[in-house]
Amino acid sequence: MASASACLEVRGDFPLLERGAAQPLVYLDSAATALKPKAVIAAMSHYYERATANVHRGSYPLAEEATEMYEEARARVAQLCNAPYEGTVFTRGTTEAINLVRLSWGRARIGAGDRVVVTEMEHHSNLLPWRALCEDSGAALDIMPVDSQGRLDMRDLLRLLDSERVKLVAVTHVSNVLGTINPVDSIVSACHKAGAACLIDGAQAVPHLPVDFTAISADFYVWSGHKALGPTGIGVLHADPSMLEEMPPLMLGGEMVQGVWPDRVEYKPPPWRFEAGTPPIAEAIGLGAAAEYLLSLGLGRVQAHDAVLTEHALARLQRMGGITTFGPAIADDRTGVVSFRLDGLHPHDLADLLGRRGICVRAGHHCAEPLSDRIGGPTTRMSFGPYTTTSDVDLCIDGLIEARDHFRSLTAL
Amino acid sequence: MEDPLYKDLIIEHFRDPRNRGHLECPDRSAHVKSPTCGDELRVTMCLEEDRITEIRFDGEGCAISQASASIASDAYIGMSAQAILELHEDWVTQLLGGPVSRSRRPCASLHLMAVRQALRH
Predict the structure, then answer these.
(1) How far apart are CA A219 and CA A201, in angstroms?
(2) Global pTM?
(3) By mean pLDDT, which of A19-23, A286-290, A314-318, A351-355 is the weakest?
(4) A109, A155, A204, A273 — which has fewest CB within 10 A?
(5) CA dist B79 → A166, A206, B26, B73, B83 (Å)
(6) How far is A257 from chain B (nearest CA, A)?
(7) What three-state secondary structure class fits B29?
(8) Which of A226, A315, A239, A274 is nearest to A4 (CA)?
(9) ipTM exceeding 0.95?
């Protein structure tokens, strides 16, 4: 049982929560994008107001300062996930990171007759790139099912890995709909025993629990800045530098070359060879500040905070009746994501009615249609951040009871 | 909970939808999904000299998508394919008698997407 004293008290760090004096903002859509702490906004403003220059180009002090800040951000981001500095590539987001792996590594390594494994709980960003790769290469795509508790069964993976032709397993660390925390250590270890590579989509994990890339030892670990309290337009690909060394760059252009001759080109070593053109400098600096902020909170404490909120939300929802909740029954097996369906009120109507009261929740299939089909259609989702309180959860649940009763009274024959 | 969108017209049609179901021998049909919330709508229709003579909608989804289809269904009868393809998107909100937020417009206009898809095939 999680203790309420485990809750963080950091609302003052998030300026957006000051919005709306008449109607307080109840932000429960952190799985879509998280709010940004002052430290992130300040770091980005500092770059624009005091330290603007391109990186890795000029030799004047201002340019050196910008380069220093950009690379320092990479170091903080690497530290957050215990990943090697040279194995930390800045991308535009999780989606771009996955597509980079598809186009650079996948196209060279996966061919006709090979197999790629994904799961039924993948976000479209970790499904569609692999479906396309299989269509392009003549490989086959296997989809691991989820059970009634919204979990994967390792026996399904082991059975699929029996085929020597599995070259890649792409799986999410945490489900964006169910909140399920997948056993990524066991998954990666099973993949490696079978000679398959493993990509972990950490978009919903990095902001919620301690992630140790080196311990997980996945071949690729990808995540997004904006879900981890950082800015939009930046994400991360972690991989072993020796793995990156063997991969051709995807985008070609400025910044990523060591030298260009009339008849040949020599690329920079990773990670820089994958960062062609002027990178999102302010966004990288902002993400570095987000990493520092999360490190100062401590991801263990963030996870405990999520557990209190999740347990509270599940207990109240399940007491209501006329409601179905999804995902593991044990709060410790999931992060701060609670999806549910109310009898008699469609998720989109509910989200709209709550939105008019300043309560922000997401409705629909959450960019995970195969999973949505598996659990019977669209759901309403509340998802938490370090700034969420049990009072936010209560306001949302009071609001949904009122919305349901109101809607029932309107539609009663 | 005062709500301008969930007002009498929407609720009335949500509770008691017109032209609901499907036609046995339709001249045209389509099945569409809303990209925002996964609402589904199926349309079947009969045509005579390029004009809709009968139409039925069927599907699962939010009150706005399902009621909007019902509200529009009578208006479609007698319209030519060309006229429907030329309709302005505002037509949908005019039928509802009020503004529709950006996030609900795909729900409110799902029936038009379905009808146009059916007419193109």
Answers:
(1) 11
(2) 0.93
(3) A19-23
(4) A155
(5) 55, 54, 16, 11, 6
(6) 41
(7) strand
(8) A315
(9) no
